[in-house]
Amino acid sequence: MTMHLHVLARLLRHADSVLRSAYLAFAFTLLVWIVRNGQFITCWVLVALAMLLIALQHYVAVRVKFDADLLEHVARMIDSGTSERGATQMLDDSLVHFGLMPSSKARRDWALRFEGCLRLFKLQIGLLVLQYALMVAMVIVCTTPSL
Description:
Elements (H helix, E strand, L loop, with lengths): L1 H11 L2 H21 L5 H39 L4 H14 L12 H34 L4
């Protein structure tokens, strides 16, 4: 169990790299808009979408990083002698106390928790793909004189 926690926490730590790549795509999108003086309404819409995507990307990255930190902390608790059940109960109690998780989700199986963490990380990757697609669209739309 603790090895699963450590491995997933390590994977989720790559959220920082994904976020840096997202900011790079966002910066390049804005650079194209500024340099090419994108006055078309389509360019303005793409810039607005880019801002929305980077905001979503940052929010999801914070959530993924938080999950990674929690998984690592629970793994350390278990490694130091706390029972898996006890560590899980303390985690659930804290999350419910701070309103970060509804009490109905407490005491879920770890397989469901792992699945949720992976789904959030995949969402972050999906947002990155959308950002790069938007960046390419920006280059095409704002550098083509007829659009």
